C-alpha cells in the first residue's frame, strides 16, 4: 500500500485517492501510458480539493477529471470500493463468484452452484438460472442494493415508518439502529427497532405484521418482503423500501422488541457485529450470557461448554445497566466499532 505522507491521510478525499492510485499503478504496469496519465491528473486535482468529492457532478466540475474518472469517483464514495480494481487480478470464475455473492440472500453455497453451472453474469442468472422469488428481486435490484445509503435518507425511511406506527399507537417507539445509530455517514441498509414500554411481543408483532407492514406496502413504500421470522419471543421483517417518487430500492430490516428487552435489543441491533461478538464473549468469561433478549446469570454448562440451563435474567430493558453489570465502561454507539 502506497502512502504519500500525512497530507494524503488528512485529505477529505484520501480514500478515493488511495484507490485511484492503485488503478494508476495497475495501468502503469500494463504500460497503458494514456490511462496512467489520466489517473495521475485526477489524483493531483483531487489532492487540491478542500472538501470531499462525492458525486459525479462534483467530480466533473473539477478541471482534469473526465466522465469515466468521475463515474469511478462516485462509485468509490458510494460503495466504498471500486469493482474494476477488485476484478483486475481475478479469474473469470472468481469474478462471477464475487458478483453472485452480492445477490441478496445468496450465500457462498448458492453462488458457487451458479458458477459451477457456468453462469458468469447477472444476465446469465436472469435468463438461464431457476431463481426463487427473492433471488429474482436480488438480481433485478442488484445495483440498488449495492449502493450505500446516505444518513439523511436513512432518517427519511425511519420517519415514514415512525409516522405509520404512530398513526396506530402514539406510545410506540421507533428507533433507527445499525450503522446509523453508530453515526455512520452512509449505511448498507436501514435497521429499525420497534418497541413499546410495557408492550408485549404479541401486541407489537400483531400491530406491525397485520397493520403497519400491509399499509406501508399498499402505499408503495415497502416494495417486497424478503424474510420474516417469529420464533418464540423474537420477530423480524426484512424487505425493501423506496422513498416516494423514486425507484431506488433500499434494504430495510425491522426488529420487533418487547418493552422489557429493549436494552439488550439495542445493544444487539446497534452492533457492530464484531463488537457484539466480543461483548458476548466477555459475558461468557464472567459466567454470564448476553443475547438480543437480555443478560443472564448462572448459566450452567456441562462438558464442551454445552448449556444445561438458561440461567436467570439480570437485565434486559436498560442498555446502560447491561454494560454496568458486565463491568464494561459505557460505550456510546459511535465507539462500538471493532
Ligand atoms: N448483527 C450481528 N451479527 C450479524 C449481523 C448483524 O450482531 N451477523 C447486528 C449488529 C449489526 C446489526 O445487527 O450492527 C445490524 O446489522 P447490519 O447487517 O444491518 O449491519 P450494520 O447496520 O452494522 O452495517 P451496514 O451499514 O452495513 O448495514
Ligand atoms: Mg445495517
Ligand atoms: Mn440490517
TrEMBL record:
GO cellular component, one term: nucleus
Entry's Gene Ontology BP terms: double-strand break repair via nonhomologous end joining
Family: Belongs to the DNA polymerase type-X family.
Record has Lyase as a keyword: yes
Taxon lineage: Eukaryota, Fungi, Dikarya, Ascomycota, Pezizomycotina
UniProt KW keywords: DNA damage, DNA repair, DNA replication, DNA synthesis, DNA-directed DNA polymerase, Lyase, Metal-binding, Nucleotidyltransferase, Nucleus, Transferase
GO molecular function: DNA binding; DNA-directed DNA polymerase activity; lyase activity; metal ion binding
Catalytic residues, chain numbering: 72 (nucleophile)
Location(s), subcellular: Nucleus
Source superkingdom: Eukaryota
Chief subcellular location: nucleus
Protein name: DNA polymerase lambda
UniProt entry tagged with the keyword Transmembrane helix: no
Amino acid at each position: 500500500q502506497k502512502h504519500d505522507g500525512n497530507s494524503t491521510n488528512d485529505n477529505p478525499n484520501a480514500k478515493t485517492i488511495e484507490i485511484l492510485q492503485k488503478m494508476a499503478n495497475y495501468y502503469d504496469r500494463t504500460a497503458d501510458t494514456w490511462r496512467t496519465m489520466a489517473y495521475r491528473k485526477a489524483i493531483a486535482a483531487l489532492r487540491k480539493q478542500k472538501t470531499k468529492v462525492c458525486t459525479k457532478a462534483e467530480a466533473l466540475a473539477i478541471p482534469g477529471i473526465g466522465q469515466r474518472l468521475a463515474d469511478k469517483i462516485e462509485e468509490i464514495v458510494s460503495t466504498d470500493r471500486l469493482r474494476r480494481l477488485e476484478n483486475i487480478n481475478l479469474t473469470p470464475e472468481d469474478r462471477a463468484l464475487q458478483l453472485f455473492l452480492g445477490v441478496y440472500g445468496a450465500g457462498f453455497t448458492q453462488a458457487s452452484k451458479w458458477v459451477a453451472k457456468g453462469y458468469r453474469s447477472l444476465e446469465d442468472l436472469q435468463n438461464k438460472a431457476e431463481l426463487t422469488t427473492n433471488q429474482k428481486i436480488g438480481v433485478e435490484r442488484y445495483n440498488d442494493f449495492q449502493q450505500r445509503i446516505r444518513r439523511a435518507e436513512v432518517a427519511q425511511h425511519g420517519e415514514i415508518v415512525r409516522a405509520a406506527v404512530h398513526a396506530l399507537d402514539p406510545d410506540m417507539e421507533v428507533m433507527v439502529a445499525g450503522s446509523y445509530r453508530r453515526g455512520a455517514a452512509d449505511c448498507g441498509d436501514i435497521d429499525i427497532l420497534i418497541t413499546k414500554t410495557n408492550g408485549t411481543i404479541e401486541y407489537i408483532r400483531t400491530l406491525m405484521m397485520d397493520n403497519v407492514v400491509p399499509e406501508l406496502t399498499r402505499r408503495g413504500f415497502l416494495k417486497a418482503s424478503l424474510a420474516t421470522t417469529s420464533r418464540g419471543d423474537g420477530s423480524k421483517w426484512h424487505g425493501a423500501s423506496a422513498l416516494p417518487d423514486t425507484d431506488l430500492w433500499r434494504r430495510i430490516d425491522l426488529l420487533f422488541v418487547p418493552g422489557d428487552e429493549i436494552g439488550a435489543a439495542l445493544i444487539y441491533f446497534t452492533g457492530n457485529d464484531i463488537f457484539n461478538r466480543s461483548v458476548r464473549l466477555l459475558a461468557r468469561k464472567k459466567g454470564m450470557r448476553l443475547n438480543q433478549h437480555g443478560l443472564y446469570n448462572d448459566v450452567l454448562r456441562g462438558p464442551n461448554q454445552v448449556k444445561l440451563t438458561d440461567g436467570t435474567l439480570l437485565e434486559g430493558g436498560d442498555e446502560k445497566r447491561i454494560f454496568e453489570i458486565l463491568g464494561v465502561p459505557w460505550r456510546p454507539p459511535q465507539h462500538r466499532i471493532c
